[in-house]
Design a protein that fits this description.
Distance between the termini: 34 Å
Number of helices: 9
Helix content: 55-70%
Number of strands: 3
Oligomer: single chain
Shape: elongated
Structural class: mainly alpha
């Protein structure tokens, strides 16, 4: 028996991640679908309301824009879409990191017996934190046999940092060069192109590409993680893997 997503021969951590990934994609799609309808309805209502009281002697003819803006509290469709897309990126990257931790915990188990005494196995974590740091996750999965710190993963994590701690603002030329999407900007007016001081460009296609890149790494990582826990060959490697993880300070083994 080998790892096989189609037959469900995967880790429990993978199943949890896959459900989260499905929710992220549904949220992105349904939010766009529902918001388009709601915004169009609000726009039509604003036009209708203004048309009913239009006076050519008093009005310029575009006052329905103010009515619409008041109705949506200033949240125009492009801003709504950006906030939705940013939340999906942040949730997806966090879900990726949660998967890495849960897969390791599943592969290693929670306890072992040494010298006739029961010990617990925990992933090493910074003081007062329950979860391990990024370097520990990367090192531990490398011991299992997977490289999870790819260029695309690094870029996605940096983007998550930008979205979380700078609200997506591109504050330097370096940030602009790293996060702009030149392909998406082709044919756009200058005002719609990424710039220093503006928000990082997202868009549903770009978000889905990020989700796909994270998914590819998880599928690569889950095969060795699953094998450690569920295959005879993997279990034979368990003592060796435990020793290496302990040597690299990725785990803590404590008596109960």
């Amino acid at each position: 028996m080998t790892w096989n997503e189609d037959s469900g021969t995967v880790s429990r951590a993978f199943d949890d991640w896959k459900w989260n990934d499905r929710e992220n994609r549904a949220f992105l799609r349904l939010s766009a679908q529902w918001s388009d309808k709601a915004y169009q309805q609000t726009w039509d209502e604003a036009e209708g309301s203004f048309a009913a009281r239009f006076d050519p002697d008093r009005h310029y003819g575009d006052e329905h824009l103010d009515i619409f803006e008041d109705a949506v509290d200033g949240l125009w469709p492009h801003s709504y879409a950006w906030i939705t897309e940013a939340s999906v990126v942040k949730n997806a990257v966090t879900g990726f990191e949660v998967y890495l931790e849960k897969a390791l915990q599943e592969a290693l188990g929670s306890s072992l017996t040494m010298d006739g005494k029961k010990h617990i196995i925990k992933l090493a974590a910074p003081h007062k934190f329950e979860s391990p740091g990024w370097k520990t996750l990367v090192a531990a999965h490398k011991v299992l046999g997977a490289e999870v710190e790819t260029d695309k993963v690094t870029w996605a994590r940096d983007l998550r940092h930008l979205l979380t701690h700078q609200n997506g603002e591109l504050r330097s030329e370096d940030a602009l060069a790293r996060f702009r999407d030149l392909d998406a900007e082709r044919g756009q007016d200058e005002i719609h192109r990424a710039r220093v001081g503006g928000k990082v460009p997202l868009g549903a296609p770009r978000v889905l590409t990020i989700l796909d890149s994270l998914a590819a790494v998880i599928r690569t990582a889950d095969a060795p993680a699953w094998a450690m826990c569920w295959s005879p060959a993997g279990r034979e490697r368990w003592p060796e893997v435990m020793t290496k993880l302990h040597q690299q300070k990725c785990i803590v083994v404590e008596p109960v």
